[in-house]
Amino acid sequence: MTLLETVRGPADVQRMNYEQLTGLAAEIRDFLVEKVSQAGGHLGPNLGIVELTLALHRVFDSPREPLLFDVGHQAYVHKIVTGRQTSFDGLRQLGGLSGYPSRAENDHDFMENSHASTALSYADGMAKAFQLIGQTRHVVAVVGDGALTGGMCWEALNNIAADPSRPVVIVVNDNGRSYAPTFGGLADRLAALRMRPGYERALHGVRRAFLAVPWVGRLLYGVLHAVKRGFKDALSPQPLFEDLGLKYLGPVDGHDLPTLEAALRRARAFGGPVLVHVVTCKGHGYGPAENDAADRMHQISPPAVTVPRQAEIPRPKWTNVFSDELVRIGSERDEVVAITAAMRGSTGLDAFAAAYPRRCYDVGIAEQHAMTSAAGMAAAGLHPVVAIYSTFLNRAFDQLLMDVALHRAPVTVVLDRAGVTGPDGASHHGMWDLALLGMVPGIRVAAPRDEPTLREELREALADSSGPTALRFSRGTVASPIKPLCRVGTVDVLRKEGQRNEVLLVGVGAFAELAMATADRLADQEIGVTVVDPRWIFPVPHVLAGMAAEHDLVCTIEDAGRHGGFGSAFATVLRDRVVRSPLLDFALPQRFLEHGSRSQLLTLTRLTAQDIASRITEKVAEHRREAEQAEPGLRAPLVCTEHTREGEVECQPSGGPTQEVARWT
Ligand SMILES: Cc1ncc(C[n+]2csc(CCOP(=O)(O)OP(=O)(O)O)c2C)c(N)n1
Ligand SMILES: CC(=O)[C@@H](O)[C@H](O)COP(=O)(O)O
Ligand SMILES: [Mg+2]
Fold first, then answer.
1. pLDDT tens digit string along 588-601?
2. What is the pLDDT of residues 543-574, one digit of tens each?
3. One of 92, 395, 475, 535 is an active-site residue; which one?
4. Helix (H) or strand (E) holding 546
5. Which of 55, 97, 283, 436 is 20 to 30 A from 214 in CA distance terms?
6. From the CA of 20, how far away is ligand 3's center (Å)?
7. How far is ligand 2, taken at its centre, from the CA of residue 511, in Å?
8. Bridge partner list, 419
9. DSSP summary character for residue 480
10. CB neighbours of 327 closer than 8 A, spacing ≥ 6?
């Protein structure tokens, strides 16, 4: 039986000696490489935190003393130690082990949110609660050097340092990297401290030597301890944290178990807020990860499942199309600059940075700062592109609203990973951006459906200097290109057939492809269907209301949360204009969606051509029955309201929908 197989919980790790622990660490690394290479996931971060996680579970009494992992992508070893190693074959798969802590999985897990820089605030809150209810319990927060560049961390540190009686143990897991090397002055300071990992080892060795001397040893050590300050300052000046009122321990070699454990025991014994600066190597112990210059195998994909298909033209990723077009635009316009929040590679800015190194800014994991800094750049004459994942827009909403939009700053926000992302689960699906963007006065939002429209709409956004613009697109490969029949205003008509205008299908972004597949099924049932792609979805194009007035039923399909999505915005427009065609809005249910593959989750949420078509068919049949019984009446008058940046402006009726139809058929 291997050492790993004997691990059912922290107690098994606590019983081991250092020789066994060294063997266990090696087995865990082999296990991680095997399982994560198969399932996909965060290999580098977890290879780097093996010894630290073992030491944490030996020194602290989890779950009574909670261990919190910032972001949580580095909690695989924690999951192994807490009895879940047999579940790793289902890692990040639907119904399988989450790639982040999960309270449903285990009592040792607390924080499920994978948005960075939250663990210290969580720890502060728990520590205050324990203090209030009179429980002396340590709270341990493991925060990476990247997460430490997030503003919330410093808000939390300010609070944690405020009360010397609360035993919060902050473990900075400093591997010098986010994806790429961590950016900023703080990172540079940590790097300077990191250069001295010998301090704790030297201290640990000196202490052991003195305490080994009978009688006088302890006395002598006490004397040395009194002069340690000078000794320590000489080796590793750490005013960075001690000036905040935090006890600083370190830097400690995060792969040297005995030293690491000794430092953590000192931290535990301290009894107040203490920061342990642990130096680790992302990808430690696995050559391909250690030598991966890009991101130390921060995250790897599962092996591609090759399904034999007729020769399909390989299509690029949305991110790569964005990257390519931005570089082209950058060559034409010097004032276009780009900002990333520590994700330059995965948001497609590497090529732009290579081409224009002085025009690409990494701000660390600091989306709020990115947005307001962009507003500053715009105020000084630049046109910044803020490239972030859709789900992380949540972080920067107030900055977008009040620092960008209030000033009508020409900032373009490019939201990658919009809609269902998949294996990263609830806090990574990009399902809130439309509800947020729909609230921002004066912003124009585009949702490209394919490569040509992404290139076109990115150019249109960057050409607009009258206010903020945003683009959103999915994770993964671009949808198949769909050539429009015609363009009415900014709206592309993709399909129009059938004698009667029974159904208007509005496909948002990549879901234009899904709308076309749905139309195929409706046409098979001789239902007259028109498919359109709004392209610019906010403000809702006014021509869509004219089209809606001409159809018996209006349907919107979007890869976004239903609440506040495009469908609900369009329903408001139809109400304003007294267009009585009923509207069905197909969108993601407003709940936290689990992890799984994108296609599995779209099936689970019934966002498939089959599900949508069958729901529409029911509604059309219902409408036909009602129409047969109803008196032939006039269609409701169309009241035109132009939705512009200034808000809603009444405009002259365009002679009613008939002319509109004539114009756009
Ligand atoms: C608010 C937010 N922005 C971006 C991300 C994407 N992200 C996930 S992990 C990571 C890097 C984390 O670096 P660090 O905290 O140093 O942890 P390490 O991977 O080095 O262990 C980033 C940027 C995120 N999870 N949350
Ligand atoms: C934790 C982390 O790194 C996430 O930001 C996520 O894993 C990104 O995944 P993708 O870049 O594959 O969408
Ligand atoms: Mg790091």
1. 999 999 999 999 99
2. 999 999 999 999 999 999 999 999 999 999 99
3. 395
4. helix 543-549
5. 55
6. 27
7. 22
8. 430
9. P
10. 351, 352, 355
How many Cβ atoms are within 10 Å of 97's Cβ, its own excluded?
Answer: 24
> Which residues carry a binding-site annotation for thiamine diphosphate?
73, 114-116, 146-147, 175, 286, 367
- Ligand 2 atom with the shortest distance to the CA of 71: 1
Distance from residue 253's CA to the centre of ligand 2 (Å)? 27
- Write down the residue that tokens 């509207």 correspond to: 583
Supply the pTM of this predicted model: 0.92
Spatial separation of the C-alpha atoms in residues 419 and 391, rounded to whole Å:
9
Distance between CA 541 and CA 354 in Å, rounded?
37
Give me the DSSP letters along 105-135.
T-TT------SSS-HHHHHHHHHHHHHHTT-
Span between the terminal Cα atoms of the chain, in Å: 73
Which residue(s) pair with 530 in the sheet?
A: 496, 504
Residue 60 · residue 137 · CB < 8 Å: no
- Give the total residue count for the chain: 665
Cα distance between residue 550 and residue 430, in whole Å: 33
Q: Tell me which residue of 203, 216, 312, 209 sits closest to 266, measured CA to CA.
A: 203
- Of 43, 71, 194, the residue with max ligand 1 atoms within 8 A of its CB, to mutate for a pocket test, comes to 71
With the most atoms of ligand 1 within 8 angstroms of its CB, the residue from 43, 120, 172, 178 to mutate is 178
